[in-house]
Write a structure and sequence with these properties.
The complex is a heterodimer of chains A (133) and B (133). Chain A is mainly α. Chain A contains six helices and no strands. In chain A, helix 2 crosses helix 5 and helix 5 packs antiparallel against helix 6. Chain A starts with a helix and ends with a helix. By secondary structure, chain B is mainly α. Chain B has a single domain, classed as 3 helical TM bundles of succinate and fumarate reductases, CATH 1.20.1300. Chain B has four helices and no strands. Chain B is elongated and about 50 Å long. Classes of the chains: A mainly alpha (133), B mainly alpha (133). Chains A and B meet through helix 1, helix 2, helix 3, helix 5 and helix 6 of A and helix 1, helix 2, helix 3 and helix 4 of B.
Chain lengths: 133, 133
């Protein structure tokens, strides 16, 4: 019980710690990375099903085309794009430590690339819900 | 006000050389995935289109004129994404599960599932042959 309270308190402190951009960057990197890993597990499993032939595989695909899963795919796309660009920011800071003073600017540069690409990909993922083929 | 401080004394001792190696591995595989994973995502969502993916799409991808290229591409993606993801999960477990027993148990489950998925993915990439070819 005390352990659970400590964990909840640590979690609360973790998300309310006012570290601004660097803090949000770290949180999104971690949550996004775990989310992408979970999706990757499902994705390897569904591609494995292709070995059982077209009936089994195509039947499974309804999951990916269902509206709730499309919303998850929009999150997935954000997770991959953000993790990639913020990962590049981490690599730059790690290998050229003098760039640390620009870590905040680099966060916004990463977002300026991620958001437009994400919105385009999200549009093509969500639009078919309203205009089915 | 108790501040949550994970107990260091029961934490598994990190092995210096191994940790430096995985630190580099994360950055090298990160740069590879920046192109391979983001390329895969944008190719299938913006060029192929989610609506057009079914059994025949994968048959065309893996047995068409560029079949060998796509199988190598998918194998590289599988290996780099899974090792990068599993090591990321290992770091997250080390951060939040400091006690030796639960730490070991969680890593065992995650890595066992991870290795099974790597084997499933590699198996289907190497052995997939649609009926009649």
């Amino acid at each position: 019980m005390a352990q659970a309270v400590a964990v909840i308190r640590a979690f609360y402190k973790g998300i309310t710690y006012r570290g601004r951009e660097g803090h949000w960057a770290w949180m999104m990197h971690r949550v996004g990375g775990l989310g992408v890993l979970l999706f990757l597990a499902l994705h390897i499993f569904d591609i494995f099903l292709i070995g059982f032939g077209p009936e089994v595989f195509n039947r499974f695909l309804f999951i990916y085309h269902s509206p709730p899963f499309r919303v998850l795919i929009v999150f997935l796309i954000y997770g991959v794009l953000y993790h990639a660009l913020n990962g590049l920011r981490i690599i730059i800071i790690d290998f050229w430590p003098s760039t640390t003073r620009y870590e905040r600017q680099m966060f916004w540069v990463a977002m300026a690339i991620v958001i437009p690409v994400w919105l385009v990909a999200a549009y093509f993922t969500i639009a078919p819900i309203f205009a089915p083929h | 006000m108790g501040v949550y401080t994970p107990t260091l004394r029961r934490r598994a001792r990190p092995n210096g050389r191994f940790e430096v190696m995985t630190w580099y591995l994360m950055r090298v595989s990160g740069v590879v995935l920046l192109f391979v994973a983001v390329g895969h995502l944008l190719w299938l969502h913006l060029v192929v289109g989610l609506e057009n993916i079914d059994f025949n799409t994968i048959v065309g991808r893996w047995t068409g004129p560029l079949g060998a290229f796509w199988r190598v591409y998918d194998l590289v993606l599988l290996m780099f994404a899974m090792t990068h993801g599993l090591n990321g999960a290992r770091w997250v477990i080390d951060d939040y599960v400091p006690r030796r027993g639960p730490n070991w148990a969680m890593k065992s489950v995650v890595f066992t599932l991870g290795f099974i998925l790597i084997l499933m993915g590699a198996f289907i990439i190497f052995t997939f042959r649609p009926a009649g070819t």
